[in-house]
Write a structure and sequence with these properties.
The chain has helices at about 5-10, 30-45, 60-70, 80-90, 125-135, 150-160, 175-180, 195-200, 225-230, 250-265, 270-275, 285-305; strands spanning about 20-25, 50-55, 75-80, 100-120, 140-145, 165-170, 190, 205-210, 240-245, 280. By secondary structure, the protein is an alpha/beta fold. The chain has 2 domains: about 5-110 and about 240-305, Bordetella uptake gene, domain 1 (D-Maltodextrin-Binding Protein, domain 2); about 110-230, Periplasmic binding protein-like II (D-Maltodextrin-Binding Protein, domain 2), CATH 3.40.190.10. Strands 1, 2, 3, 4, 5, 6, 7, 8, 9 and 10 form a 10-stranded mixed beta sheet that branches. The chain is globular, with a radius of gyration of 20 Å.
Length: about 325
């Protein structure tokens, strides 16, 4: 099988009928965009309908339950992300599924968050922000898009590594969090790069660092967090998205679906779209993606445990 060209491997299997891709998030976000790109790619190759269904709620766990309860024949797939497929296992007390009930198939796109401050805040580097936090422990407010979201846990990890404290101000989504930041009601936030890029370009907020291991092409002059201070040398956070299926999916289906995703992310148009989103393609086998997901579950479990953070999924 491995000796076959990628296209041949991808063509080797077909689902038995119309396929739905569950999105455990609202329409319009990166999870939804990725699912629709994949559906549009697969439909003509399979010559059968591939539909996207948004099933939101409970931090992505409601949509994920659809895949846990589905038949393992490839007609129900999940376009998951870092929230319900990694963070949720430690964050929620009453998790309705386990990690071993969901089968990782292929990573699709990953990308950084970015640390920003209100442009009126007199800090221009991460070190200067750290000095402010240490001078005023537990007094500096920061915004997030909600408790347990990547935009919350990214600064939590930073604060843990800096041995610093700040005041968390959660919001219901990125837009209200950004309004609070622009209004000067909070000092900083770590948001999705694409979501806040417009405000960075306008000069209304100042970017101090990206959370990925390397600098991002959209902000080449902004350092990676791990470049900025010795305490942050091991800091790395990427939001990520990938394809999952129900446990029991035949091996040939997993191999073929992984190859289909690899074919999609290798198309120049996809690479251009990923660049617009500030992200990069995730390449690799199903086994490599599964190992990555396990490492993310472990990583965020430790961050959440140290923070003493748990909420109800409902």
């Amino acid at each position: 099988m491995l000796a076959l060209p990628l296209a041949a491997r991808a063509q080797a299997w077909r689902p038995p009928g119309q396929t739905r891709i569950i999105v455990p998030a609202a329409a319009g976000g990166t999870t939804d965009i990725m699912a629709r790109m994949l559906a549009q790619f697969l439909q003509p190759r399979w010559n059968m309908p591939v539909v996207v269904e948004n099933r939101t709620g409970a931090g992505g766990t409601i949509g994920t339950l659809e895949i846990v309860r589905s038949r393992p024949d490839g007609t129900t797939l999940l376009l998951g992300n870092i929230g319900p497929q990694a963070i949720a296992y430690s964050l929620f007390r009453n998790m309705p599924y386990r990690a071993d009930q969901i089968l990782p198939i292929a990573g699709t796109i990953a990308g950084p968050n970015v640390l920003v401050v209100n442009s009126n805040v007199p800090v221009r580097t991460v070190a200067e922000l750290a000095a402010m936090l240490r001078a005023r422990p537990g007094q500096v407010p920061y915004a997030s898009t909600g408790v347990g979201q990547s935009t919350h846990l990214s600064p939590v990890l930073m604060l843990q590594l800096l041995n610093a404290e700040a005041i968390h101000v959660p919001h219901r989504g990125s837009a209200p969090a950004q309004i609070d930041l622009l209004g000067g009601n909070v000092t900083f936030m770590i948001d999705n790069l694409t979501g806040i890029m417009g405000h960075i370009q306008s000069g209304r907020v100042r970017a101090l660092a990206v959370t990925s291991k390397e600098r991002n092409a959209m902000l080449p002059d902004v350092p990676a967090m791990r470049e900025t201070m010795p305490e942050l040398a091991n800091y790395e956070v990427n939001t990520w998205f990938g394809l999952f299926g129900p446990v029991g999916l035949p091996a040939e289906a997993v191999t073929s679906l992984n190859a289909e995703v690899e074919a999609l992310v290798s198309v120049p148009e996809t690479q251009r779209r990923f660049a617009e989103l500030g992200g990069f393609a995730m390449h690799g086998t199903p086994e490599q993606f599964a190992a990555f997901v396990r490492s993310e579950i472990t990583k965020w479990a430790e961050v959440i445990r140290k923070e003493g953070l748990q909420v109800d999924a409902g």
